[in-house]
Amino acid sequence: MFKGRWLRYLALIWKVLFKQIKDVWFPKTHHRRTATLTHNKLKEVILPYPKNQKKPQWVIDKVIYLKAHLPNVGCGTIALTFNRLYQHQGHTVSKTFVYEKLKANQYAVAVKRRNIKHRKPKPVAVNQTWGMDLTFVTLNKKQHLVLGIIDHGSRALLKLQNINNKSALTLLRTLVQIFKQFGVPKAIRTDNEACFTAKFLKKAYWLLGIKPQTTNIASPWQNGRIERCFGSFKQLWRQVDFTPCCNLQTELLRYQIWYNHIRPHSQLNGQTPMETFTNKPHNHKNQPVWVSDWDGVLSGFYFPD
């Protein structure tokens, strides 16, 4: 009996001593427990988009598209613009990425810009929307105010007139003259200049059933047809050395006739603006007449009815 007790005591003492020796000689090392995820659990975990993963092709196409539409900005601005547009889809680009892709796709950018330049605008109904704006021309070393009105559908230059001032009453008088000749349009597009947004002129539009269309501030491209017409007009105007006895309104009328009846337009399938406006193509039976004015600057063939 006593022998069994002593054996148990010795076993307990040995166990305690062995544990102390083990802790001193073999200290515990705490290993981090790694969680193992199954294939199904991995699908549920939302992992961040890896930066070193190859970008989809549509990302490169969008970078080329942005550069074609924003040719004067740098790679940093294009990267910021892309991230603002498509970051919610989980894709972002860096300035270096944009630089490398644009450098490798210079021809693609040039092709995209050429397609944008030669893209035909959407067809617009004839005599439904007019564009109106003001510009200045120099004659005899003096600045003169000129009012231009163009039809969006046919590109017909309905009015090119020198006016003394740009008051709303002067504009309305000129518009009434054009209404008597060509009818009343459904809309007139102008910029935000005070003379075009005057309450008096808006009231007249309301009485005539005309919808005023105003472009955004500092956005001349939104009224691009009249702006393009003024650009072509001034380019030719500067090439002529007018004599001091020239009458401004007479010269404006000469240009208007040439622009409407002689000059063919690429966006009108080779027709002149007035042929499209009246829906009457030129008559092949009559002999065309060669016309030259402004010392040969205005020239072309006129097909009489």
TrEMBL record:
Lineage, top-rank taxon, reads: Bacteria
InterPro entries (UniProt xref): Integrase_cat-core, RNaseH-like_sf, RNaseH_sf
**Domain Integrase catalytic, which positions?**
119-281
Q: Name one Pfam family in it.
A: rve_3
Gene3D superfamilies, alphabetized:
Ribonuclease H-like superfamily/Ribonuclease H
GO molecular function annotations of the record: nucleic acid binding
GO BP of this protein = DNA integration
> SUPFAM superfamilies, from UniProt?
Ribonuclease H-like
Q: What is this protein called?
A: Integrase
Q: Which organism is it from?
A: Saccharobesus litoralis
